Amino acid sequence: xxxxxxELTASPHIKGPDTTxxxxxxxxxxxxxxxxxxxxxxxPSAALVVSAATLGCxxxxxxxxxxxxxRDGSAAITGLLLGLTLPAGIPLWMAFxxxxxxxxLGKLVFGGLGQNVFNPALLGRAMLQAAFPDDMTAWxxxxxxxxxxxxxxxxxxxxxxxxxxxxxxxxxxxQMKFExxxxxxxxxxxxxxxxxxxxxxAFLILVGGIYLAARKHLNWRIPVSILLTVAILSQGIxxxxxxxxxxxxxxxFSGGLMLGAWYMATDMVxxxxxxxxxxxxxxxxxxxxxxxxxxxxxxxxxxxxILLMNALV
Length: 313
What we know:
Layout (H helix, E strand, L loop, with lengths): L19 H23 L1 H21 L9 H11 L7 H13 L15 H12 L1 H4 L35 H8 L5 H6 L11 H13 L6 H20 L7 H6 L3 H8 L10 H21 L6 H11 L1
């Protein structure tokens, strides 16, 4: 008598070696060199801001999220990415609040991991940008003494220090947009410029992104289509008016494009599931980035471009 049984279970029936925690912690690992560069250029303030943002995410996930979800690493990634998009000089309580918003409004309100419509880290940053525009646009210089704090990190909520404690300046995008002053490509590539804590080290971000693509933890079509679109469109516009608009090299390595293309736009939850959709998503983000940077009122457009395309996914 044949005693074999057929067991019916929910899909997927064929499982690969990768798990959600494994993928999430691989992303965290790939971002550690970027965090190291941020601390190198912006001193202890960078570590404090990233830690505060991550703490806000982790605490919110622990208090309001389902039990055991901290182990999957998604809250840690959100906090790390959020912290890397913030200026090193902002008060730590703002970074913490950004983390609370990122997880609370960007993730849990939609039902938790896998249900969110918008990238949580970018949503948290967008809310901070709207609520605290002055602090979010005070960019500390990367050339000060390493141990010196880059701003009012320990200011109490809605309070500020009595006197300036750091030197701030325009980002390369701001200098180019409003003053037509270019920045050396090597400085953009290595991160020796004013800007958010982790957006400036283009080389390390690129290496981390390629590592994740090689491990199939992201769809390479999204960053490739974004970068190709920005390069082709911006170089074409530069050819028409070279004295007014920057070339492709500047557009690719300045601001948050690399971090956004490799780590934000490729978020598995908020990016398309088909390869054709990934190409279209990247095309849309690339066009919006160039349009906002060159014709919008703000020097940077990566955050808004990705959030707008998230809404269309």
